[in-house]
Prior knowledge:
Layout (H helix, E strand, L loop, with lengths): L1 E6 L10 E6 L3 E4 H11 L5 H8 L4 H5 L2 H15 L6 E2 L2 E2 L1 E3 L4 E3 L7 E5 L3 H7 L12 E5 L4 E2 L5 E3 L6 E2 L2 E7 L15 E8 L2 E2 H8 L14 E9 L10 E6 L2 E7 L7 H8 L9 E3 L24 E6 L3 E9 L8 H5 L5
Parallel strand pairs: 8-19, 10-16, 11-21
Antiparallel strand pairs: 1-2, 1-7, 1-16, 2-3, 3-6, 4-5, 8-9, 12-15, 13-14, 13-19, 14-16, 17-18, 17-20, 20-21
Helix pairs in contact: 1-2, 1-4
Amino acid sequence: MRIVRYTPDRASEDQAPRLGLMLGDDRIGDLRRAHERMLAGAGDRGAAEIAALRFPGNVAAHLAGGEVAHQALLETAAYLSGDDTGAGGGHALVRKLDQCRLLAPVKPWKIIAVGRNYGSHDKEMSQSGSGFPKAVPSAWIKSNSALTGPFDDIHKPAATDALDYETELTLVISKHCKNVAEADAMDVIAGYMIGIDVTARDVVRLERAEGNQLMGKMFDSFAPMGPWMITADEVPDPMNLAIQTRVNGEIRQDGSTAGMIWDIPKLISYVSQMSLEPGDLIMTGTPSGVAAGHKVEGENWFMQAGDVLESEIAGIGVLRNKIVDAPGEVQWDWERSRAGEKA
């Protein structure tokens, strides 16, 4: 199943998000309305309230409903796959995809990003040229305020001239868990998405010189996600998925999840030393081909306003995001920071 978070009107940004089920490649079934109609048809007087509880406007909240919510999903998916999916009560149960705006499917408690988890990427980014695994995975927490939709614009901050892309297989945690054994790790995955760890490389370098990493990976829109969460049962071999990144149609990254240093079970075992909650995201790293690793003289691969970024993982889908200049006036003096002056 492919679960989407969407608003029914592509042009509106004020509508409450809804959860939907992809029906084929061009239709979305409204899970909440379909569940309500299904229950009402069975004579349940609390149909509206139950449907709202089972299918809130966020995958994370739905997952928190546990097995009861999952069973409701299975039953409603079967209902939507039937013939009786027209308009009911004045509300369409099924809409055309091109009428809707897709949002990031999950708004999690936390996004855990893993760095240099592919030997090829570690090699291109390391001054020593070492592609060997480290003692522990390199990871950090990325703010959920960086989330943006699969086809929304990425805002290029005025602070950076080195805007980079990292296409990553992203795991969605299914339930509260802690200290998960590697043998049990796949059982706590609800599904998979494509994520992009957008990075302002020059800002990151400046921050790391101070022993810090914050804004360079956390500006608004620096975490496009989607286009949907595909349930784990439909991805039988997540450690063997092709990954490709294109900028203006030119292939930049062309790898496979088979190139991970720390595989999915090891990552989950490591990060679950802290409690993981339903809907938490784990971005698993990126293969070689990022702009910062491109060392050809006279060629600049960093993204500029007007560029179109496409991020694809086989069996999941494609994100397509245009780069635009970030709106608003920046109050922090980045030139002073680069000059090494203190505020």
